[in-house]
Write a structure and sequence with these properties.
homotetramer, alpha+beta, 3 domains, about 50% helix, disordered N terminus
């Protein structure tokens, strides 16, 4: 069969079959192609060689990070998720996906390209919902990479899968709001300049009208980082904080969006955020894949290269196939979003499908590396630890499966009623 | 989270983000859209209601089949895989894929739409390699659906994964060829008018030059159907024959293509054949999925609809996701082929990935139906039996994984040598 | 590593370590050992060679079956599940398991050894709950293999997972009962002499007191086999019937057990029945495994035996390991039952775990056989079709997982309340 | 079905079925039972509460560890793997397994019970192969827990799966040996008093006669810990060292065993070592399982306990079932070893099967805990990191599958030649 497959085929004889041209088009535009090439070359030359300077939970030292950021800005690849007016690239989701799968290959790259969580998501909310003053004070330095921020939603006392139970409270006192909250998994908390906090402003309103968002400066006397949570993955600069907000008094103009719009803004932030993660995961998976294939061609055991063992070949074939599937699904969801569709079902699909592909590919790459794979001598060990949370953050697999099923069941029922 | 997800989002606020338009385009052309709608309506009205008349291994009775075929021809949806000159639709692979995933929903549909194996593949070889006389005599009635054919490659004595070991022989005797062969898994043998037979013409030549193809009429005195092989799936009209060719004397003009081109033609036939199968599988999987969702909304147990159980919701979410992945991968491979690329890696990927999705989705659909699922009262039972062979025919999973791995390893090594 | 592992080790040096003797003892008694050897030899000599005479849904012809049954009775291996007083072997569950995994290797063996479903289960109920007259009239000829029987519980209109919704009714009329019911999946219905029917006698009683069991002769004028259900697997003699009971009038003495005890008796029948299935599955899996290994040592492709390919070796290793796991779990459950424990959790565990192992091992064995594997030329094709129902009958996987989880959760909660 | 299952059954009616008693006996002896209870109580009272003092890669501080060790010695549960003569418990493998699955529940317990790797394995070699002087000098303080040791086999330059390629060399110089080697993954290296080193003494001998073992004191001037390898798991005191032996001169009496016996001793060490790991994994899996069930009963989301969600119930059922399977297989292998059988196939089976169960159970437990699961606030995060190496150390999965397959194929072929 292999031999058959290796036979040379005169493909020209198929040509005439091509009549009605297909619309399904999987090719990038010239602009996208150029962006891909520039970003790839930059990764090779400037990003991978600097990975060794990454400090767990703290990222790159400033003196290494800053010049790299400057170069990215020069190249016009800074802040792909932001509109041009504010210093970003002003692209659609497909283009963002194509860039993200390159940036995703290195844990330091999102910081170098100005697209790291949670700042990217915070910028998006500020852009959409911020007042001119909020934009001036918080958004512009954030997009420029001058400051970092954090986002405070999850609380230790209640399930993250049911945000209607959040216990944080904001009470009006004169022209101020006074916030009391106990949050955790506040990514990037250490060193952040401000936090966007979700708190109940109308606890007795219907669940989706209960909450509002606020900007709290980190130097607010009531803002206290109780501890940095010891966590499996260490790729995020600023770690993950457990934070108490004790009688944090903030002026009314620090409300973000309107009163009762907290959920709407959170969803605005989370929806695209999920696809951004999925795009980045493709990059992590591809890098892991490349490391696996490369090592399998270098390492020998029992007189054969690892690549000659059928089990290893199965690892390679399965990984390549799964990455291809996840990638196409991600780009498909991005395309739907570019068409103005929420793509809620598609985003949930790639959230759990992509996270599994991510984990499986890294796992196989580690296995091929043997003992070396579980050391920090390759990026795989860090990828593996970081990847475990992908099935939890922004909604656990179980919730996303439920979302997909419910969307489908609803559509089936709607169709029935028509008939 | 569900609640969050259910919150209404003003999507217009995303709109401005869409700057550089994406090329990745997942929408059908207007012509494709029209084809899809016509085919879908025809399936609903004429195909599904006639499934009950299908006889295992024999298909639809002629008096039901013929009028349906006539309607399809009228609609212009006949023989999607063939050029217009010969009575087909003259489409590219993407268009063929979009049609095939509709036709694939019913085991009788390929016969009604003139695109059933092995006739479709045989038509393709005859079109590309046949002489004018062969086209007149064999191809035209075959494409018209007046006769059926079969294809004889696999032999019981040797592994189908290594075709260089095939033992069939054709010896020149004057102006004739005399063929001796023992073949099996000759799909559609019972009732076929002719067989395309692969036999060694130069057994001492290098493996890929050893074999040639011949057209043998079924009324040749040396053509003997030893038995109809009892086989798990029963969707193919004419069953699967074990056939002996004993001193089958045929005239020289019945050689198909040139001497020694057997492999090349087989590959030409198998390559696109594999993607056609994968396209059809999407249809089978989608039909099974629809049956599963529909039943889960109708059947109750312990006071709840099946659709309310989380395990069933997981089945639905996983199945929808896997079908989406397989579908995008199949269309991607088709698109590559439309660009003139052999897409060998992509075809092998969907061959084993798609076959697994197919089997898993049918399996879950059966499980949801409970005991009903293993009866012939729904199409699932037949789908399940038929699907088992998908991981074997046109190359077993194991070979396709090897093909994918070897393509990747070769590409990695080529890149290294450049550096 | 292999080389290391192949090094010869002086194991005597471990000996002294063995101080406290282990109680965990995995060896059979001499009686069990003798039984195993006799049964194995009989299978080789008399069972496998007669498989070719099996007729789908009808089993062995009488003239072949009867002499084989006589031999088994002579050997003292007849009706392993029955007490000695009634012509059985009077063994515990572990012994029954050891015998069943041998009998299970062939679909005709249960009929030859007098231990086929549903007769075995029916015998058990009759033995425990039957009146002396019922035992004389129904049990004795049944255990002797002179007649066959069937068991009627499942109904097409309601979910088999929720038996409290069964709609069959039995109404007292003078000294008679009049039964009206619509049943299906009545295994062995065609040719059965009588049916044990579950019907509501007190529809308004609490669910578990509603039903009673009745013996209905097949020649009752109201007993009508509507159709033989076309079903995927074909190993059961008498097929699977859809049966209507229309005003079936039967005398009061044909009630089996007491009024309202239907559930209790059904559970009595199903509990051990499930483990009997699991025991038999080990036999099917082992036979499939042996066929796989044997073929892998005989068949060559690309100049190598299949057994030399690492993927095939993985199939072998995984299959052997999973069979070992399922076997130990089954024997463990049997042992618990021999101690007087209901082993409800353990039985549910092997029900779903064993059914998966069964399906996976057959699946791999088919894959190794390639196209041959999906033909009836080996037993694998029939095993595969039959095995699909294992995840459905006697409770679907989903229910058994629920049972296991609820048992565990209940135990955890009980322990907490103690503390 | 649940309802059925919940029905009360008079089990006495089964009793008479129990005739031939089963030998398969899954109950512990009274001595084992007592050991289990004592160890369990000690874990509850003294081990779990001290886990919080564990320092990654360094274990418990001496002032906490020492008094706990003293208590264990008093209880007679010290060094279960060692004979009584030398201060151990003198048990067989089954008993050791029963104890190990308790000790395995906590990463600090092996140190408290005197059974931690690599000291346990080193003690075994020293006991079997050591001279009286070596026993006095190294074994006695090691078994007493006064010193720690390490074991040096793996080298960065060659594949650990093929030990015949090890490059370490020992050359005779007068009455001394001079060792040069570059080793890594030397567990416990930091703080060890001595290392057992595998080095080639006869590089030209047949592979299995090439190597010998030597005891090298850590204060040997040529012994240099190049670095502590940054590694995913952190449960081992003393970490994992990369160690250079540069012209390490040692006296002839420091050879362990005879010249050329290195492989034999390594295998002696690794064989039982593998089963000891598997035993311990059962404990890790059970602890993770308990944490999962417990949390599912405490945590609520959307108004329901996690334990009420069917997906979580599936996690519980699958985990319990897989643990049961792995446990029985491990005890079965131990039992075979107690019978004087090498149980090579069974040990390889549990090596890869058990490692997968371990990983899957921890993974599900983390998923149930959500974000909490990936923090160090529960033991799960550490378990997860440590567990990844289980599929690599003492032979990767791939090698163990090969061992199982080869053993089976060899047995099949042997049987054929008999026939």
């Amino acid at each position: 069969m292999i031999e058959l497959v290796d036979a040379i085929i005169d493909l020209f004889i198929f040509k005439h079959l091509t009549g009605v041209m297909s619309m399904f088009d999987f090719s990038p535009t010239p602009e996208q192609q150029e962006m891909i090439e520039k970003a790839t070359a930059f990764m090779d030359e400037y990003v991978y060689p600097n990975e060794k300077y990454m400090v767990p939970h703290r990222g790159l030292p400033e003196d290494i990070l800053r010049p790299l950021q400057a170069r990215v800005k020069e190249m016009g690849l800074w802040a792909g998720h932001m509109p041009k007016e504010i210093g970003g690239m002003g692209m659609g989701f497909v283009s963002l996906g194509l860039l993200s799968e390159i940036i995703g290959r290195s844990p330091i790259a999102p910081y170098i390209f100005g697209s790291m969580a949670p700042d990217a998501g915070n910028s998006e909310i500020l852009w959409h919902a911020g007042t001119p003053e909020q934009k001036r004070k918080y958004l512009i330095p954030l997009v420029n990479g001058e400051i970092r921020s954090c986002f405070a939603m999850t609380e230790p006392e209640v399930s993250g899968s049911d945000p209607t139970t959040l216990q944080a409270r904001a009470e009006k006192d004169g022209n101020d709001w006074v916030i009391n909250a106990h949050k955790w998994f506040t990514t990037g908390a250490i060193g952040a300049s401000f936090s966007i906090v979700m708190a109940a402003t109308d606890p007795d309103a219907p669940p989706h009208k209960r909450f509002s968002m606020f900007i709290v400066d980190a130097d607010n006397p009531g803002f206290e980082i109780v501890r940095e949570i010891p966590i499996m993955g260490d790729h995020y600069t600023g770690g993950h904080g457990e934070v108490r907000y004790t009688n944090c008094r903030i002026p009314a103009e620090n409300m973000l969006g309107n009163r009762g719009e907290g959920f709407k803004l959170a969803q605005l932030r989370l929806g695209p955020g999920r696809i951004t993660h999925a795009m980045r995961w493709i990059g992590v998976a591809k890098r892991s894949f490349d490391l696996m294939v490369d090592y399998s061609l270098r390492r020998e055991t029992r007189g054969k290269k690892l690549a000659e063992f059928q089990t290893i070949q199965n690892f390679i074939a399965d990984s390549a196939t799964e990455i291809e599937a996840a990638r196409l699904m991600t780009l498909y969801a991005a395309w739907k979003m570019d068409q103005g569709d929420q793509a809620r079902k598609e985003i949930s699909m790639i959230k759990f499908f992509g996270a599994k592909v991510l984990q499986d590919v890294i796992d196989r790459a580690i296995q091929v590396h043997g003992a070396l794979g579980i050391t920090a001598d390759t990026p795989l060990e860090g990828f593996y630890r970081e990847a475990r949370s992908a099935r939890i953050y922004d909604g656990p697999d179980e919730v996303h499966r439920m979302v997909v099923a419910k969307q489908i069941l609803k559509a089936f029922q709607a169709e029935r009623q028509l008939v």
